[in-house]
Amino acid sequence: MSSNGKERDKQREQNQTSSPPGDSVLEKPLSRRDMLRLAGTGGAGLLLGAAGVGGIMGAFNRAATATVETATASKAADTIEFYGEHQAGIVTPAPDFLLFAAFDLTVSSKEEVRKLFQAWTKASAALAKGQLLGDSNDRLNLPPSDTGEAAGLSPSRTTITFGVGATFFDARFGLSAQRPAALVDMPAFGGDELQEQWTGGDIGVQVNADDMQVAFHAIRSLARIARGKAVLRWTQEGFQRTGKADPAGATPRNLMGFKDGTGNPDAKNTAKMNDIVWVQQGDGEPWMAGGTYMVARRIRIRVEVWDRSTLGDQEATFGRHRDSGAPLGGSKEFEAVDLKKNGENGKPLIPVNSHMALARGDGSIEILRRGYSYSSGMDHRTGQLDAGLMFVCFNRDPRKQFIPMQQKLGQSDRLNEYIVHTGSAMFACFPGVQPGGYIGETLF
Amino acid sequence: MKLKFTALMLASALVFAGCGSNKEAVEPAKNEQPAAAQEIGQDAPKVENWDEITEQYRQFAVEQADSFVIETEKFVKAVKSGDLEGAKKLYAPTRMYFERIEPIAEALGDFDPNIDARENDVEEKDWRGFHRIEKALWENNTTEGMDGYADTLLQDAKLLRALMETVEVEPSLLVTGAVELLNEVSSSKVTGEEERYSHTDLYDFAANVEGAKKIYELLKVELGKQDAELESEIGTSFKNLEEALASYKSGDGYVSYLDLKQEDTKKLSQLLDALAEPLSQMGTILGA
């Protein structure tokens, strides 16, 4: 038995008492807050269309109208366009939160996959604008087409980035010939303790937003649209310090207390991005031109162990000073790194097996990192915190960039004592979509 | 004779309560629509033969209730005669007749708590019905002390059957009932929380799905007229779930929930969600 019956009764009571027949939202005087709420969701347009502009607007004084305009303006600043040459969520600014989800397809034909991608594209464009999904949000006999938890909220710089994994190109959809050579099966790295539950997936979806509720709404909506077509394989939430906590926007710190991303290439540098992130014409599969390869690694930090290591050890592990973020021996975060400089003892100031020294190498290999910290409660076997880094990076060819870099790190990084890689996936991210198109159309 | 009379009085009171709330749930739906939605609704063709469809469903519910009473009599007899193994064998198949028509039982009053409450769903003093007996049979391995509960269970079953005669099935009950049946599976059967002592959850699972399928079959033609794609998506999803469920058959029934691995329950749960989502759109047949 369940409480369904009781809930339904409650519903009935509400239906009977809260809204007498004929008392539609149009006939109720709208408060300023209602109006703002509706303006934020696209509801105002619908209402205005139905009732006539004069009828509604006449009810508002100038001040209220001005506020609506302000709200609309700030909405634009909070919006990252979904459509474009490249997918959003790669070189666009990194919002406060991450919600990563991997899906496995349950359909058996390419046509069904195409339909899903078309539906996801339409929804994603609306989600990026902070609009309600679907057109049946006010019919009492149907579940609302939008789940509603983001109604009236800012678009919160929502981005949704799609990619497909190696398994997408198995025999099911007849696409094996189009599998890009660069989308290799990832080799085993030192320090890997990969768990099935955090690994792989036919499709990877990265959702970012400045608000976790807005991000959740996006991933939930995509999962709902996918029901009967694809199932969730794994999800991971991530966070960084919020814009509110750090208005200046300094380099974020990871959960080990160190600035993370100081050496990241400048995402605004188009030439650089073309060089290290975007797949170029002639790089291989033509359908990938303008796309990129996304690597997602769930890296658990052995928080308790790290907390009892000395500051000296910690700094030698990263190769940087914790406080300033400057390379060891230096004083400024962004000062030039000289890996050859020796200390008084004749040894390099920055240990050769420090994380920075290994990741940097001779500077010839670069990737664009876009990681977020994660906290997934606790490990009930040990009673320790399950926290770490949801590492996400983008690169033009993982065989030449991420994989050799990680092989080196996996073998000798001092950091390995304090971390363990528990999940791993790689996805080929489609090029951008123009209005009317859909994600993956170059492949179909 | 006196008991029968009381039951009838109670029955008619419940029928009134049941119908009243059903109607009221539908009426405001017509009145409250914002203008834009009403236009959409008016475009959709109306179902002409609702009376026929709801009457067919009522007949189905009556048949199930008839069998439910007959099988419950057998089960009760086994319990009262101390036939532990016989009672255990009859327990799950008997419940299936109830599980198929659970939304109607819920709409008719307190049948769900009286017949189907699990321990702690209701206060200890009020706890009766199948699961009270289930606990005795499997946890304590005895039929002792269950005579009274067995008698009450049979009375409840008969009362439910009596009420079926007069129940008025609203179209909205059909539509929401189908989804509710699947929600029942989703919230307690697929997790093994329904039959915590006997672990016969898959029997309930199958019966709930059969109950929802019956409703879909009755609405299928009309639904196909309005949204052929939705109709076919629901049909395929039923087929996928039924196929998966069939692989857990054992003899006339189903394997124990304890035999299911996490992959099994996950697969069943995902197939169920895949069915319930399009099924929840069936309300489109009701118009706005």
From TrEMBL, chain A:
A family per Pfam: Dyp_perox_C
Source domain of life: Bacteria
Chain segments carrying region Disordered: 1-29
InterPro entries reported in the protein's UniProt record: Dimeric_a/b-barrel, Dyp_perox_C, Dyp_perox_N, Dyp_peroxidase, EfeB/EfeN, TAT_signal
SUPFAM superfamilies, per database record: Dimeric alpha+beta barrel (SSF54909)
Record-annotated Dyp-type peroxidase N-terminal domain positions: 87-240
Keywords: Heme, Iron, Lyase, Membrane, Metal-binding, Oxidoreductase, Peroxidase, Signal, Transmembrane, Transmembrane helix
Domain Dyp-type peroxidase C-terminal: 251-433
GO molecular function: ferrochelatase activity; heme binding; metal ion binding; peroxidase activity
Biased composition (Basic and acidic residues): 1-13
Spans through the membrane: 38-60
Cofactor note: Binds 1 heme b (iron(II)-protoporphyrin IX) group non-covalently per subunit.
GO biological process: iron import into cell
Cofactor(s) needed: heme b
GO cellular component terms given for this protein: cell envelope; cytosol
Reactions accelerated catalytically: heme b + 2 H(+) = protoporphyrin IX + Fe(2+)
EC assignment: 1.11.1.-
Subcellular location: Cell envelope
Family: Belongs to the DyP-type peroxidase family.
Function: Involved in the recovery of exogenous heme iron. Extracts iron from heme while preserving the protoporphyrin ring intact.
Protein name: Deferrochelatase
Species for this entry: Paenibacillus radicis (ex Gao et al. 2016)
TrEMBL record, chain B:
Keyword Plastid: no
CDD domains: Imelysin-like_EfeO
Source taxonomy: Bacteria, Bacillati, Bacillota, Bacilli, Bacillales
Keyword Signal: yes
Cell compartment(s), UniProt: Cell envelope
Similarity annotation: Belongs to the EfeM/EfeO family.
Signal peptide: 1-17
Residue span(s) of domain Imelysin-like: 53-282
Name this protein carries in UniProt: Iron ABC transporter substrate-binding protein
UniProt cross-references to Pfam families, sorted A to Z: Peptidase_M75 (PF09375)
